[in-house]
What does this fold into?
Amino acid sequence: MQCVLVVDDNQAVCDALEILFSLHDIQTVCANDTSSALECVTQGSVDLVIQDMNFSADTTSGDEGVKLFHEIRALDSDLPVILLTGWTNLEMAVELVKAGAADYIGKPWDDLKLVTCAKNLLELRETSQRLEHQSSNRLLARKQLEDELDLCGMVFESQQMQQLVSNAGKVAGAQVAVLITGPNGSGKEKIAEILQANSACKQGPFIKVNVGALPADLLESELFGVEAGAYTGANKAREGRFEAAHHGTLFLDEIGNLGADGQAKLLRVLETGEYQRLGSNETRRVDVRILSATNTDLKAAVAANEFREDLYYRLNVIELDVPPLKLRPEDILPLAYHFLPEHYALGADAEKVLRQHSWDGNVRELQNCITRAALMSATRELSVEDLAIEGFNAKWHVRGDPMNAQVVLDALERNAGVHAKAARELGISRQALYRRMEKFGISR
It folds into this structure.
């Protein structure tokens, strides 16, 4: 159960708040002096502090409260603190809010306002701790992946990609066909590299071919090879991609664009392991692990009689689906910094724009954006103007106010519910943040 620490030298205040919070099933502990309060915080069992600003008789300066506030922040910088005083000093309140205080409430307090504020801060504290715990678990899992697998330099932070890479590691050692699906530019080829690098045939050749881009009249010779004299200009024998990949891995990209004739020829070699070079009657055998990738919905293509069902099931023993970049926003900035040239950096507004852009072109679009910006920038710190993303100007407004409910919630979560910090990150005033929270129905 979460716990509120009330710090006030007036025991009557402590008793009143303890009764108030008990009516709302909130556990409360009290401290009448600063040393007792700091001891409670040190023990780590406190989730919210409601502190008075004066602890000595006939003292109204608030200096004692300021000192206690900073001592609490030094012990736990994420612990939310509500300042409670009968001697309201607006200038002092503003300064402490800038320093990270969650709110500033005068005595006598409004019960509903105080309880609502406390509940919201406790909820955000719980969310923050849960996210921190999840992040810690992800870091441990990522370290384990790095120890167990060759990740081929893949950059990711999101839970989705961590699970995908983990699944890739599980199937990499099995000599089964894997179909990698996902939108263009999302990283399907990198997943294929991870599969090959951690496979039993990792020492063998790794041959990549975009079968969707091969003309129909060249498909057979490219995949299976050609004998000398097979056609005009074929002066010498040439091995095909299957032969080149013998005892290794063959990656067939854009498999969904393969025509009907090519599908039939590919199915035969997958079923029998046998093929013939163009212009030859000699049957050859090949031992190849097949990986394929597509941005096409092959199930829909099968239903529309555009893709052979038997070939689909030959290719899709295991399916790995790569999510689009917009569904894994945690990966955006790590990828952006990975693509930045050495000694370059991103400005704060540029980072915000990168996080908010939809990235319909996925990782490839992000890489192109960063590369172009670095080439065109007059400085080594890239700005919003350098990114030149359509719809964003130097103030990172997108056709008006870029903020939506999720943007505000994300900022609050990253700052453990501290409104002042969230407002600073968003580049707006605390009052403007409150207006947006009210607009989006986010409870304070």
The chain has a mean pLDDT of 88.
